[in-house]
Amino acid sequence: SQQGEEDPQALSIQEGENATMNCSYKTSINNLQWYRQNSGRGLVHLILIRSNEREKHSGRLRVTLDTSKKSSSLLITASRAADTASYFCATDFQGAQKLVFGQGTRLTINP
Amino acid sequence: KAGVTQTPRYLIKTRGQQVTLSCSPISGHRSVSWYQQTPGQGLQFLFEYFSETQRNKGNFPGRFSGRQFSNSRSEMNVSTLELGDSALYLCASTRTGRNEQFFGPGTRLTVL
Predict the structure, then answer these.
(1) For A42, what's the count of Cα atoms within 13 Å in the CB-facing half-sphere?
(2) Separation of alpha carbons B33 and A42, rounded Å
(3) CA of A80, closest CA in chain B: separation in Å?
(4) A67–chain B Cβ distance below 8 A for any pair
(5) Residue B80 belongs to what H/E stretch?
(6) How far apart (Å, rounded) are the C-alpha atoms in residues B81 and B19?
(7) Mutate: best of A98, A100, A101, A106, partner B, most B CBs <10 A
């Protein structure tokens, strides 16, 4: 079973708007990562946040982590059509290369 | 640097057959992980290899196996294929000491 639950399952917004996706997990983690997948292709690593970090930025991406609530959020600002993809959170709770993925959020950016 | 490569990209097999998928990691990466992605179960971890040794294993039956060679290339094998094995199989490599995984494009396996 999946460790992570993502919310919403699908999100459709207009180009230029901000998109926020949420992820919740069940057990203590070493780090949490976000990945993007375009239409059934391989995943692309976006950002990693460690369990002792609360917020991290990378370009138009902002990730927060609340370990007390076992949740994380990914914010994409000023969305573009090219951001249309599925976004997955993945937790690494054993300190090993064994990521546990959520079901993903399917993001559609409308021009 | 070249990315993670997987061959073949597409494969069609029939029930009962076996299949071998190949993964070449990014140069210098010694850890290779395999994942199965299906619409129903999502992304699930199969196993991880490091220096030719299986370090971690997911909850898959023994029909799923893998190995890693001295050049870090990895193969996974599925024997006695079932319809439910139809999926996108992804491999990912990781640099030692890091946690970010770099994924290949996947092998789309269809079992008829």
Answers:
(1) 20
(2) 13
(3) 23
(4) no
(5) none
(6) 8
(7) A98
Q: What's at A49, amino acid-wise?
A: I
Nearest Cα residue to A99 out of A45, A59, A56? A45
Helix, coil or strand: residue A41:
coil
- Model confidence over A45-97: pLDDT tens digits? 999 999 999 999 999 999 999 999 999 999 999 999 999 999 999 998 666 66
For strands B74-78 and A31-37, give the pairing. Answer: unpaired
pLDDT of residue A1: 44
Q: A101-110, pLDDT tens digit by residue?
A: 999 999 999 9
- Cβ neighbours of residue B40 closer than 8 Å, sequence gap 6 or more: none
Tally of CA atoms within 13 A in the half-sphere of A64 that contains its CB = 10
Position B42, amino acid: G
How far off is chain A from B31, nearest CA to CA, in Å?
Answer: 8
Count of Cβ atoms closer than 10 Å to residue B97 Cβ? 5
Nearest to A7 by CA among A19, A25, A22, A18: A22
Question: A98 is written with which tokens?
Answer: 């064994």
CB pairs under 8 A between A and B: 63
- Reported as a single tens digit per residue, the pLDDT across B40-78 is 899 999 999 999 999 989 999 999 999 999 999 999 999
Element (DSSP H or E) covering residue B103: strand B102-103
Distance, in Å, from the CA atom of A85 to the CA atom of A82, rounded to the nearest integer, reads: 8
> CB-side exposure of B93: number of CA atoms within 13 Å?
24
